[in-house]
Amino acid sequence: MVPRQIRLISPSGYCHNQLAALRGVERLRDAGHQVENDAVITRRFQRFAGNDEQRLADINQLAQLQTLPDIVLAVRGGYGASRLLESIDYIGLQRRLLNQPLALCGHSDFTAIQLALLAQVGLITFSAPMLAGNFGAEVLSEFTLRHFWQAVSSPTVNVAWQSDTPDSGEWQGTLWGGNLAMICSLIGTPWMPQIENGILVIEDVNEHPFRIERMLIQLQQCGILGRQQAIVTGSFTSTALSDYDNGFDFSTVWQRVRDTSGLPVISDLAFGHAADTVTLPLGASARLQVMQGQAQLQATGQPVLR
User: Fold this and answer.
1) Domains plus CATH for the chain?
2) Angle (CA) 72 77 83, round 5°
3) What is the pTM assigned to this prediction?
């Protein structure tokens, strides 16, 4: 593996699992990578990884760096990115980062910043593992690691999986999405990308199926789903059904979306908050193919590390 220069950022919540973050740094350094800006791991203000000005600087300083790192890696998600969106230096970041071999990586709450960058200046970023939850996990997922390094260093990202879907076909469009709650939080704002003919990939954590359905109904009623080619669903973890649900589960939600929107819903992609997750370039050009439950997603046009 080629040694990489990795710069940490923490624009969201305080990293309450300090041990995991430090373990992630140690693993990356043991693998030969250079990890910088690790002071953001311990930084704290209230529930955040520093005050708004400090966390905003994590993002805006990227526009001023004389030498760019290979990878910019979020420490964790949580909450806080939404507070920064109005003050991000979008034009400065576009001038410095566009068409550069830099992988800006994170997921969860970081989705808000990723989609804002895509909406404002067309920057492609990676919905990818983060320092504490993934690189610092007690048991490191080889699946996650393999897909991450392949995605950030190859001109074509290839992901294949088995899907429990009745849909078959081929669709092409802009790959975008991320955490569903964060996507919905951007509706009606300048930070929501206006994607036509998109392939929308979604995931979430700690959200019951009825809440996921409610968010998808919101996306449909405001016209966003009507502009998409297909929906790909990732992991929806840490939810518990009860007797009250009486069979209402995620498969029920996906089928309702098919019935009401006419869109194919390709389920079961290992993507999101689970230990095993693929890395996807948000804003890249993609082709999705499904035949008899065998799904394949290809993406091109994203930054590629030299």
Assistant:
1) 5-153 (3.40.50.10740), 157-300 (3.50.30.60)
2) 95
3) 0.98
